[in-house]
Amino acid sequence: MQHRLIAAFLLGVCMACCGCDAAREPDDQAYIIAVGVDKSDQKGMIDVTYVAALPVAASEGGGGSGGGEQQKITTEVTFTAPSLAETRNLLNSVSYFFPTLTHVKILVMGEELAKQGIGDVIGPLIRFREYRGTNYVVVAKGTAKNFLKKNKPGIPGSASRYFESMMETASETSYYLKTTLHEFYLRLKDADGTSYTAMVAVNPQTMEDLAARPRISGQKTEEYYVGDIPRSSSGANPVEFVGTAIFKDEKMVGMLTNAETRSLALLTGKYRRGYETLEDPLAPKHGINVNLRQGEKPDIMTSIVDGKPVVHITVYLEGEVTSIPSGINYEKAEYRELLEEAVSRITREEITHLVALCQEKGTDIVGIGYHFRNKFQKIEDWEGYAWPEKFPQADITVEVKCKIRRTGLMWRTTPKQ
Questions:
Q1: How big is the CA angle at 393 (ends 390 and 397), to the nearest 5 degrees?
Q2: What SS3 state is found at 360?
Q3: Which of 136, 154, 220, 311 is most open to solvent, judged by the fewest CB atoms within 10 Å of its CB?
Q4: pLDDT tens string for the chain (417 positions)?
Q5: What is the pTM of this model?
Q6: Where are the beta strands (DSSP E) in 12-115?
Q7: β partners of residue 74
């Protein structure tokens, strides 16, 4: 009898402790989908912008598919405070919804803050349980506040879908690369490589051509920094994802163009596919389009000669010809080899340029240092080698091997009659 009473008592305690006091209805919560952090004009302070998804009932108040102004499905608010934690408190003070950060998709750092150093911002995010390691991290040219304010995706459905789609489709061209909070933090703490993130900006849409540097011989396309792509459209979203912010320790030390970012993807094995437009080797006034993909991961061979690191990188490409305006039969073996050599040369020059830029900035964003670890028996010996100091003096050579595997829907090109 006594055992039955004890069991009944324990059952009652368990039932009392399993209540739903902490539960909240979805419509009672403000889902933060993006956070922007900028350097403040006030010393020791930061400007933090939150973008929240509005509940369905709130977003149905105006507009509609039949015309007029687009429905507003998000709202933005900016605070100035000494820390992210304090802005979290302030956010709760101005919203009758309960703010939750568990659905944040992207963290946007302002350019000025990134150049100053973002270690004090990134560190607390890793520790705070509401932020997830899968959150994407980008750097905004200008301010994060302006980027989030001007961003008008114009797509139906979830307000967070835009950020997810943009980052997940980065591999379609490799003109920008996705980086998660977890990946960024690991590289930030690791001396074997340095961090990088995608760049975002608001494009003025003036159609002004602001090419970043002269084209490589034989190349038809220009390369651009984020915000400089010549484009103009009515009512389109003015923001763009292009290029890469490169870091040394916790500070941003430079930007990469779209072409330089593609070279980074090739060196890190993250390149999926993309188009290359080059001069026709036998008729330079015409262009040839080749759809390229990475045949296999790059081969990075390392050695140490008289204390100096020596690196040879081999990149493998496979291509499909998608356009031959000149009508020359590049399907023939001897002509196909000319095209393969042209693609290999242009790609090699692009990658060599990127390597030289990284060595000049002293930042190993490729992660070449990881390939030297096996040269040392103890981690203490590897740390004593001081790779960050050795990297700028490393002897690095690049080789590109391209094979044209397919010729589209035509097996032989004939000249125009």
A1: 115
A2: helix
A3: 154
A4: 666 666 666 666 566 565 555 556 565 677 899 999 999 999 989 999 999 886 654 445 444 443 334 456 678 899 999 998 899 889 888 876 677 888 899 999 999 999 999 988 888 888 888 888 899 999 999 999 999 999 988 766 677 888 999 999 998 999 999 999 999 998 888 877 789 999 999 999 989 889 989 999 989 999 999 999 999 877 788 999 999 999 998 999 999 999 999 999 999 999 999 999 999 999 999 999 999 999 899 999 999 999 899 999 999 999 999 999 888 888 888 889 999 999 999 999 999 999 999 999 999 999 999 999 999 999 899 989 999 999 999 999 999 999 999 887 776 776 654
A5: 0.87
A6: 29-39, 46-53, 74-81, 98-100, 106-110
A7: 53
Rounded Cα distance between 226 and 215, Å, is: 17
How far apart (Å, rounded) are the C-alpha atoms in residues 329 and 223?
29
Grouping H, G, I as helix, E, B as strand and the rest as coil, residue 37 is strand
Q: Decide if 267 contacts 313 (C-beta within 8 A).
A: yes
Nearest to 348 by CA among 340, 337, 359, 338: 340
Q: What is the rounded radius of gyration, in angstroms, for the C-alpha atoms of the chain?
A: 26
What are 145's two structure tokens?
A: 């506040």
Long-range contacts of 346-350 (CB under 8 A, 24+ apart): 346/216, 346/218, 346/219, 346/276, 346/278, 347/263, 347/266, 347/276, 347/315, 347/317, 347/400, 347/402, 348/315, 348/398, 348/399, 348/400, 349/216, 350/216, 350/259, 350/260, 350/262, 350/263
245-220-236 Cα angle (round to 5): 55
Instruction: Pinpoint the residues of the chain covered by CATH 3.30.300.210.
Output: 275-417
Give the class (CATH, top level) of 275-417: alpha beta
Tokens 């961090």 belong to residue: 195
Kindly report the backbone phi and psi dihedral angles of residue 304, in degrees, each rounded to the nearest multiple of 5, phi listed first. Answer: -125, 120
* Residue at 413: amino acid letter: T
Smallest CA-to-CA distance from 130 within 167, 92, 103, 158 is with 103
Residue 244 contacts residue 177 (beta carbons within 8 Å) = yes
